[in-house]
Every structure is written in C-alpha cells, then in structure tokens.
Amino acid sequence: MLEKRASGVVLHVSSLPNAYGIGSLGAGARTFIDFLQKAGQRYWQILPLSPTGFGDSPYQSCSTRAGNPYFIDLDLLVETGMLEQGEADAVRRPPDHVDYDALYQTRLPLLRAAFARGREKLAGELAAFRRAQADWLPDYALFMAIKARFGMLPLSEWPDKDLLAREPKAMRSARTELCDECAFYEFMQYLFFTQWTQLRDYAREKGILIIGDVPIYVSEDSVEVWAESRLFLLSGPGRPSVVAGVPPDLYSETGQLWGNPLYNWKVHELDGFAWWIDRIRHTRTLCDVVRIDHFRGFHTYWEVGAGEDTALGGCWRKGPGLKLVRALKAAFPKLDIIAEDLGDLDEAAWSFIGKSGLPGMSVLIYGFDPEGESLYLPHKIPPFRVAYTSTHDAPTFVEWLTDEANEAEREFAGEYMRLRVEEGLAWGAVKSVWGCPAGLAMAPLQDILGLGADARMNKPSTLGGLNWRWRVREEALNDEVAQRLRRITQVYRRLPDK
Which residues touch 291 (CB under 8 Å, ≥6 apart)? Predict the structure, then answer.
C-alpha cells in the first residue's frame, strides 16, 4: 500500500447524500465513488459498517460481523419490488443530518414490509447466504430477536436468566419460538451484504480501494459478549468486571470511560488468537485495507473497574503485544493494515508500534506546537506512515485553526503552511499533507470542503449533539472541487497509475 504515493478521502457511509435520513449503499455512494475517481483519489476510508449502539456510535455495536440495516438502500428495494415508492417517500428526511430518532421509529417497519414481499422470492439466495455466514449469523439473529422480545433491553438486563446464560433448553425454545423474527434479521443482513458487494464491485471498476475500520473493543451489549463470554473478563453473564477507557487526555480531564468489556487475553492466546483472525478475515471480505482502532491497546490498555464514574481510577495492563501481531501477519501476509497509534504513547508503546512493522497515523492538526518539534509536522512524517489532515474524533482543520488553536499555534500553522484566506484555509492543509513524504495522504471530506465546527463527526467524551450526524449534500461533490483536488494530487505526484 505504501510503496507508491497515493491519497484518499475519509467519509462514513452515514454521511453520504440521499433523501431518506441517512447515507446508504445506493446512488449516493456511487456518486461519491465517481467524485473520488474524478478527483484522482485511490482510497475511500469509512468508519465501522456495523450497527450503531450506545450514543449512536459505530464503535459501540451489537455485533462485530453484522452490517448496519440503516445503510440498506431503499431505492434499490423499490427497484426490485420489495418496497413501493410511496412507502419510501413517507420516510424522506432533510438531507443535512442523520435523524437517528426517526430511523429508530421508521426503518425496521419499512424493512419488515420488504421482508414480507421478498422472503419467498429470495428463498434460495437467503438459504445460500445463511450457509455462507453460518459461523456468526444464527447467533446474531437470535440475539437480536431476543432483544426485540425484551423491548431492546441491554444484555445485562434481560429478564430471562436462562437465556442470558445460554442454557441449552432455553436456547432451543427461543430458536423455535422466534424463528420468524430470526429470519427477519437474517434477511436484513442478506440485503446489506448484497448491496455492499455490488457497491464494492463498482468501486473496484472505478479504481477505488476501500479502507475499513475495526474497533479494538466490542460493546458489552453485543452478541459476542453473550455467545463467546469466555473471551472477556466478566463477573457474570453479560456483566463486565473491568472496562476499557483511556486516562486523562486532551479531550477530558477525567479520561475517557468507554465502558467496553476487556479481553481475557490468556484465553485468546491459548486459542492462537483465532477470534481475532476470524474477525479480520471477515473484515477483509468487505474492504481492501484494514485500520485497527486504538492499536496501542494491544501493547498496554487502560483498565477501569466496572461501575466507576470516570476513568481516573484506572491502571495500565499489558496486552498481547507482538504475539497477536505475528498471528495476524501469518494469517494474512498480503493484507494491508493501518495501526491507529494516536494518543499519549510512552517510549515502550512507540517501540511496539515500530516493531509491529505496520504504518501508524500522523495527524496534521496535532503538529503545531511552536515550542516543540512534533513528529506530525509534514516535513517530519516518514514515508512508512499515513498522514491525515484530521480524523473523525478530532475537530475539522478549519475548526481547529479558528476555534481551538491558541494564537501561537495559529500563527505557526499559518506561516508553515502559507495559509491564505482567499485560497481557502483548508486547501493549505490538504496541500501540506499531500506534499509530505508519507506514502498515503488522507483527509476527511469536511477538510476537502473547508467546513468548520458544525461538520465535526464526533467529539469524544460527549453524547448527543452533532455526534455521528454530519452529512454531505450531493451538490458539494461537484466537478470544481474534484478538479481542484485532482490538480493538487497531480502536483504532489499521488495520482493513481492509469
């Protein structure tokens, strides 16, 4: 991946343009792929494709394998006769932000209508899909069917303790009683994976490779914690004994308390890290490059007692380290992996990143300490790294420059990048990253468009607000922007080979 200079754009599927309240795998996604091709880009980086969970976050999902049903394109269902146009029109929403409340109320009833019309017609395809996904789909479908029966209560609050503990008799009864509901959840996954495969084929035809995202942790309210409990540190069925987070950082004085259950790494190692290998193998079927979020957690991770209000009382624990990295490399010798290595790393953690042999991330907005010599200054970024203007968890470049940088940082950044208001401040950031030595240069679409605080994707340690809601309008993906980005990409020798 990093042998040749290339570039790309970060945009989650939820942010794509369409008329139905959230981005999907249909025409809006193809419009964006066409935009990337016109702009001379090689990569499209997305966030996790899994269903969103607590706080509408794609990093708090009920499954590491399932696709988000909200991404199923309604227009494609109309074309195949599984929905009527009037049914789709009834859930149209303004295009600027994802309306998660409306989606929660309206999307599954609409997909149930498609299920009623399509299940018999697609019986053969559905049976083949179940066979192909037999290692995860039955447990996922049953997990979701049980949650639906219990009013979507989290796993730890299920009233049926036998089902919570997966007692065989209770499991057999549930599979029988909830057979139709399980079939519905399997049907939605069939639609998602069918549409995603078609979209990925379209991207390949246009010369676009997709960078996927693997969160290091799973949600405590997930099928994995329920069905594979021995892999986690739990005090009882569905109840973590310790949870994940990070110590105080630039986002929070009390640290970030994520609440995800931590892994029982001894069990993973005894299994030869089979669960992680299977997880990466599944992700590999969906994308071309894999970004592993919070990669430093494999070296050392922050452990907080379950029930704590903040992450302040946590402590560092040793992770599996290079043993896991070697297992993944042995299983996937040709797979490109990006190690998200942001945060406050000590010398040992930096050494681990280096010994992993995987490219880390350098983020421009963290580079402008006028008194220091940041390794994120563009001229100091080595070829074997991935350079970003910003990330989904950080302010957009314009937001950082105008709202968050102090006067000295702003002055240094402006002088270093020769920023000009008449050009557009963010274009100076794009040029700086595209011109740096890093093999791969990336920018969130918000930075390509020069957007500010109202376009930020997520603000860590906060819930609600604009988090995970930003969307782009189709008219923003125009030829003028594409040609300007293409020219910058050509000047800095990052155009793909013809």
Answer: 45, 211, 212, 213, 214, 337, 338, 340
Classified as helix, coil or strand, 251 is coil
Would residue 344 show up in a list of annotated catalytic residues for this protein?
no
Instruction: Give the integer Cα–Cα distance in Å for 372 and 65.
Output: 43
pTM for the whole structure: 0.96
Separation between Cα atoms, residue 318 and residue 337, nearest integer Å: 22
Gap between the Cα atoms of 462 and 485, Å rounded: 33
- Helix (H) or strand (E) holding 277, with range, is helix 274-284
SS3 315: strand
Name the 3-class secondary structure at 338. strand
List all residues 6 or more positions away from 365 whose beta carbon is below 8 Å from its beta carbon.
Answer: 389, 390, 394, 395, 397, 400
Q: Of 340, 341, 399, 447, which residue is the catalytic one?
A: 340
The reported pLDDT for the residue numbered 43 is 98
Over residues 423-440, the pLDDT tens digits come to 999 999 999 999 999 999
C-alpha distances out from residue 460 to 302, 312, 315, 393, 465, Å:
16, 16, 20, 6, 12
Residues making up the chain, counted from first to last:
498
Which position among 293, 399, 409, 447 bears the catalytic label? 293
Active site residue 293: yes
Q: Are 244 and 258 in contact (CB under 8 A)?
A: yes
